[in-house]
Amino acid sequence: MEKKTRKSIRELPRIIINNDNGIKKLINLRELWQYRDLFWFLVKRDIKTRYAQSIIGVGWAVIQPVFSMIIFTVVFGNIAKIDSEGIPYAIFSYSALVPWTYFSSSLTDSSRSLISSKNLITKVYFPRLVIPIAPVLAKLIDFGISFLILIGMMVWFGIMPSIWAAFIPLFILIMMLTAAGAGMWLTALAIQYRDVQYGSNFFIQLLMYISPVIYPASNVPDKFQLLYALNPMVGVIEGFRAVLLGTHSMPWFYIGVGSASAFVLFISGVLYFRHMERYFADVA
Amino acid sequence: MVDYCIQVSKISKRYRIGLEQQVPDTFVEAITEWVSRPIKNYRRLRKLTQFDNKYSDERDNIVWALRDISFNVKPGEVVGVIGKNGAGKSTLLKVLSRITHPTSGQVELLGRISSLLEVGTGFHPELTGRENIYLNGTILGMTKAEIDLKFEEIVEFSGVKRFIDTPVKFYSSGMRVRLAFSVAAHLEPEILLIDEVLSVGDAAFQKKSLGKMEEVSKEGRTVIFVSHNMGAVRSLCSRGLLLENGTLTKDGDVDQVINYYLSNKDVSTAGRLGWTETDAPQVKELILFGIELLSETGEVRTTFQIDEGFEIRVQYEIREEIRNLRLYLRLKTTMGETVFATYEDTTIREGFNRKPGKYTAICKIPSNLLNDLTYRIFIGFDSPGYKVLIPGKEYLEVDIIDTSDGYRYIKGAFDGPIRPVLKWEVENQ
Lengths: 284, 429
Known about the structure:
The complex is a heterodimer of chains A (about 280) and B (about 425).
Chain A: H1 2-11, E1 14-17, H2 23-26, H3 29-34, H4 36-50, H5 60-79, H6 89-116, H7 118-121, H8 130-138, H9 140-157, H10 168-190, H11 194-209, H12 225-229, H13 232-245, H14 252-283
Chain B: E1 6-16, H1 27-46, E2 62-73, E3 78-82, H2 89-96, E4 104-110, E5 113-116, H3 129-139, H4 144-158, H5 173-185, E6 191-195, H6 203-218, E7 222-226, H7 230-236, E8 239-244, E9 247-253, H8 254-263, H9 267-270, E10 272-274, E11 286-295, E12 303-305, E13 310-318, E14 322-323, E15 326-333, E16 338-343, H10 346-350, E17 353-354, E18 357-365, E19 374-383, E20 387-401
Parallel strand pairs in B: 3-7, 3-8, 5-6, 6-7, 12-20
Antiparallel strand pairs in B: 1-2, 1-4, 8-9, 10-11, 11-13, 13-18, 14-17, 15-16, 15-19, 19-20
Helix pairs in contact in B: 3-4, 3-5, 4-5
């Protein structure tokens, strides 16, 4: 018995707590792996509780992009007569609204996540990174549902996707990295400066206008194209349109630049979040 | 060589608190204040995480919650941390449980660590009991596989089996606490940190959790236990740590540390509150100067033995004649429930209008009435039918402890908010 206890003590994990902030401590993958179950339960919680006690339930996942599409089609398609690259404006805008709605709602949730988990972070230790990342995964359900509607519309309009549709997972990955990266930045800032929380809704709304949701990216003047492409959602939306609606060939330029900036955003988000993490419980 | 499972070396923790706001007193100042407010706010918020002296000025308020704390804990030791409110006990647990980082110093832990800083953390009202067990369990550091194994046991212990697939929002608060505690009680970390869980729930539940704690500590697990309940600390722990103003002032045998603590309580702030005319709670007609807790021998204290009576003295001054003045006192539990309310009856005895003058109202609390608990003293003044004078507020805390050598099963905290000694007669037929 005695021997057994001794032995197990040596095998125990050793945890060092101090104020160092080395790069090794910044990304502790082993620890994240240990808490993978928590991560999944948080994702599940977000999914299950989102539409709890509502009548339409998951229908809300569809209502937002569909109603936006109807309004956009009337205002921008019929009244302002914005160029929709030769396809019906309804599906032109909806194909952008599906990824856009995912992006904006997961970014909104992610940026609020720390503040709404305040009672958790001041009471229990666990890798804080799971908090802003969980909503980014949970929102994929909504994305999936609104994507099904998009497929239905393509059938209705008789549009065949191209072979390049195999790239859709890449687009999804880019938009997840972007939402998670921006979410980590915003939520880590918002826990200390609440202005960020109040401002981020508005900021996300503005972002829509620098993404090709209501107009095609080709409308942007050439000299701004590089700047424009830095927004990863440009590559995602144009990519969706290219492979599903065949409006143009694969926009490699947007995808390339967008992936790079999504990657930078994500990595810098993780680093900033981890750097600020030790203050969360103190400033929450 | 001894393997310590907790090695704390010289940890300190600094906080910045309540940076004062200046109040403008002219119109021009108000305008400039309004314009410069965002910059000031930015600096103020920034300072929450920055401690360099770049923006520092006189009004900064840095508080050292912990200062150069060092101690080691051997595997299997059960250590009680005691001290007044604000002495740094909770901060110490927060550092040990990695919720917050120390400003300097280092802690080395050997083994998995779990903390029960508040049971039920992360419970979501819309999720069912079952889902909450998994969510809460993983938050506390278990894996799904571990919870699967213990699931039946957890449900059994909680006693809410019938409602396990009902959303927790339909649970009574008692059921919720039982379920939450049940999850926490089935954690199996090598090191367990407990803060005041025993003050949650009713007395029956407290007793159950105390029993569980005892069980846990006998299993050879290392426990760090923070509590105001000296009786619980004494019965659970073998070693005591006393924190005072963020420093570790005593470390040793639990009885010695508790006795030292009880006999050395800082009387001026602990059992007595006093104010001057500028900072006292007051209205035009009335000013509250002080509140004291006095033992039968006339000492100011906050801790009393269960078989010892004490007095609550309230000093006030009536500055203008008041109609129908009523001083009310409520004794509350730390959960905020009123145990009883009582009123100063001078108005009834001496007439409707109270004359100006200085008064001391003394309320005597008899011995053998209160339970082995912490109570709060809530005091207010009004004139019923006319107006509220000084709104009621909790001012002082009083600890009642049972350190008698009584028979162990009828000692300490009983069920219910009070523990009167009643006369029993037993007839043999």
